[in-house]
Amino acid sequence: MKKKKIIFWATSVFIFLFEGMMPLSTLLFQPEYFNAGTKPLGYPDYFAYTLIIFKILGSTVLIIPRLHPKIKEWAYAGLTFNLIFAVISHIIVDGNINYILMPIVIGCILATSYIYNSKINSNG
Fold it and tell me: What are the boundaries of each domain within the chain?
């Protein structure tokens, strides 16, 4: 059980830092780059703000212990959809393999967090 918790927390904290805190720190400390990932894809500025807000909320939900499982399911789903659409956007717009692979790797880490969250919750 301890191994499962370590894997869950390591992956969840990584997601929290990468998907939540990194966009927030960009918005706070380098606001001129808040849309650096969405502007080249043709998305409007309000979309970048929306992504930042929901990434912060979703990734925070993952690391709150004893939160209702349905809320965590929604957070995992939202973050997953974000990553899927990032891959699709980069395939269609720029085809840059690095920009395509990054959300896939993050998605694998998110999936690992989800799997181990389920394993921990099924054991009590």
Answer: 2-122
